[in-house]
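Exercise 7b. Backbone tokens:
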């Protein structure tokens, strides 16, 4: 499948994207509003960064305990329930006078339940599309995420100039509700992909099985760590440029959109595997420029160029799927999403701590240097032992 026309003729692909777009818009506008609310209340780069990206740390717990549900429960029901849970939690965050400890309790609970979302969506996309359409479909999915972020952050920044952060949080809650409705009405009720009931033991056994292959481990680490360090630096936009954070986030989303479009649509399949390391380096190198503390215009250019490197995830996800049995696709992608979110949360905590001790610009530069080091290390390890291992199809676990 090499054309967008064929892709969008696939049944359920369009409502799948629309439900995700509403969810992503809610997450984008709500995250910016919450980060701004916390920064205005505390003046702390650390707390602002953690409020936006810290909830992703909770996904690590979800990945350890809940991921077996990604393949063992009906996908439409899970996605609808997640959207409703986020709508409720975001509405609670908008309550006036909510103490800071309660704010962080709510967002961490949201992060815990969100751990299922990536795996369920990834597995469902794998069912909706044919094998030869997965990379193109995933690139459109990522492009939509980038476009929604770009519009959402730009809109969120404009709304925050006109409205209070709490009002913007209520708007985000309404968008989560829209996502739930589109999911319920636009997608077909499908049975679970795997037999057995979700359990802690099933989650642990399957995660151990997925982690047992060296090529898959390197793919997971390549997806998680360089990305997480850079997103941690991105969490400092609010403290680096309080009046232009929305602009920087929108430029980052634009770069991600362009990178995914180029890799998904224009790059020949035979060339894609060679781009994993160059794209991960592109993701980090422009942030070294922040050591000079550039103004908003130059920062926006650097962020746009760097964010094209997020397309490395397309290449590495394709590699991961080629190494994974079909009946474990949901949990494999859920583990990817959970690990990525957790590393982004850790990156935000680390970047916020560095910014508190030094400055946002210095912290962003150090995070970029760390990302480059990890990418080069993983590339060297990958050259040492390349052996295309694929597990045989797995039977029911637990």
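Sequence design result:
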């Amino acid at each position: 499948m090499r054309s967008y026309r064929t892709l969008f003729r696939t049944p359920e692909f369009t409502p799948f994207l629309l439900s995700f777009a509403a969810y992503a818009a809610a997450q984008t506008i709500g995250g910016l509003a919450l980060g701004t609310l916390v920064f205005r209340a505390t003046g702390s780069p650390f707390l602002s960064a953690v409020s936006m990206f810290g909830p992703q740390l909770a996904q690590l717990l979800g990945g350890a305990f809940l991921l077996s549900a990604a393949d063992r429960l009906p996908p439409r029901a899970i996605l609808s329930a997640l959207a409703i849970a986020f709508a409720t939690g975001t509405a609670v965050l908008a309550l006036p006078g909510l103490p800071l400890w309660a704010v962080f309790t709510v967002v961490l609970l949201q992060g815990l339940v969100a751990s299922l979302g990536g795996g369920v969506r990834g597995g469902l996309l794998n069912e909706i599309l044919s094998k030869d359409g997965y990379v193109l479909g995933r690139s459109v999915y990522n492009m939509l995420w980038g476009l929604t972020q770009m519009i959402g952050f730009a809109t969120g920044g404009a709304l925050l100039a006109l409205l209070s952060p709490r009002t913007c949080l209520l708007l985000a809650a309404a968008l989560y509700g829209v996502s739930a409705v589109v999911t319920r009405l636009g997608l077909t009720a499908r049975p679970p992909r795997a037999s057995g009931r979700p359990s802690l033991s099933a989650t642990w056994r399957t995660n151990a099985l997925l982690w047992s292959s060296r090529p898959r481990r390197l793919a997971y680490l390549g997806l998680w760590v360089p990305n997480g360090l850079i997103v941690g630096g991105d969490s400092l936009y609010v403290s680096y440029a309080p009046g232009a954070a929305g602009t920087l986030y929108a430029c980052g989303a634009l770069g991600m959109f362009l990178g995914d479009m180029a890799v998904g649509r224009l790059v020949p399949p035979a060339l894609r595997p060679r781009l994993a390391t160059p794209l991960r380096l592109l993701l980090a190198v422009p942030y070294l420029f922040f050591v000079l503390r550039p103004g908003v215009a130059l920062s926006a250019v650097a962020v746009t160029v760097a964010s094209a490197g997020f397309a490395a995830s397309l290449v590495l996800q394709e590699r991961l799927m080629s190494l994974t049995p079909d009946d474990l696709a949901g949990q494999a992608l859920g583990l990817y999403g959970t690990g990525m979110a957790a590393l982004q949360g850790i990156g935000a905590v680390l970047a916020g701590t560095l910014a508190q001790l030094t400055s946002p610009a210095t912290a962003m530069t150090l995070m970029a240097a760390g990302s480059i080091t990890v990418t080069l290390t993983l590339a060297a390890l990958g050259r040492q032992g390349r052996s295309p291992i694929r597990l045989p199809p797995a039977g029911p676990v637990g």
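Instructor comment: The CA atoms of residues 15 and 63 lie 27 Å apart. Confidence is low (pLDDT under 50) at residues 387-398.
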